[in-house]
């Protein structure tokens, strides 16, 4: 049986974005803007599927356009207005966590025709029993078109003997295990669903007489939709003509877990700071994480002859946490100030190297540049959200040292990452994780990174930083603790060791 492997990566990558809209005359255009606001969650490929009613044929037709690349480059006015016709749509930005990234058939949304009509699906997350389900379906004669776990949803829906789509989904969700936030398009409805643990975010909103779903509320802001609430863990929401007429969504609960397990990395890194996820503003949480880091791991002491200590962030993911860090430090100390010491280019293209050059170093230099006048002769604190393999950070420290700072100190707004994620984040295998290789020994990690000090936020302080909006609210911290809340049946060699921070 083929097993899914965690891909080799140099850093954390996001895990896909989904979007859905019902009853809008420009559904494809709204979906395009929704994807644009979710571009940070996946840059490999994107797609939109629309449902169009053909009155002369008295049936629905699904239109689809998807391709590799960024949303901006995949869609144009002709595609959005002449090809993607219809008043309902779902969309997807992809960063692959299961299934090859270079296969065109793996680009979502997936669209099929089955006995009850057309159906399309966008999925954010990972299934942890995908391999056993795939093998069982293949033995029963199912033919797979992709290598993605997401395709399993469609085959199980098609095989179900339940009479309506909601009951079919309830049956499917009783079989499937893992993390999933879904947008599903049928001939005459848009459906959203979220796994019982609520690992990945999924929001519900309204735009006039239209209804929208998205991985993050940043999608609502760009189209000026109103945020209503989260799709609850273990909930299915169906939007159809009846809902538009009555103004009341159709909600169905299919599971009732005692505790939710939201991905805590959504607050640390993934989600945009202007979004609301898990019932809280990301910006607010990220600032609190930075403040707690300052309380627990303050800057080094200043010597009499020192100039003011400079705090810089690694753009862009640690921007907000750095503001929180500096604001907390500044309450009691006047020898620390926030500066822009790194400039990030958002226009990184192809890299051409000469023999003997390090391609990773060249790529880093095309992405980041330093402001020498800010860093020279100073004690510099670099605030970053996480350390995965450590390769990029080592090169970044090397680059900053060329500005001749007096000292370089690292402050990380998350605990050491000692184990892979199997719920939708593309972390490397455990052997590639710098914290795992050093058995959680921070001093050894510091030496490898070549910095004067290294401090991580503790798991306790991290959990103090995130909201607990309901009695059921909880978080998945498996990448820091190796404690996996959802059973993992199919993925080989799951690390169970724990290390001290």
General description of the model:
The protein has 2 domains: 17-257, Glutamine Phosphoribosylpyrophosphate, subunit 1, domain 1 (4-Layer Sandwich), CATH 3.60.20.10; 280-481, Rossmann fold (3-Layer(aba) Sandwich), CATH 3.40.50. Helices cover 29% and strands 24% of the residues. It contains 18 helices and 24 strands. The protein has a 7-stranded antiparallel beta sheet with strand order 3-2-4-1-10-9-11. The chain has a 6-stranded antiparallel beta sheet with strand order 5-6-7-8-12-13. Helix 10 (282-296) packs across helix 11 (319-329) and helix 10 (282-296) runs antiparallel to helix 17 (459-465). It is elongated and about 80 Å long. Residues 1-14 and 493-501 have low confidence and may be disordered.
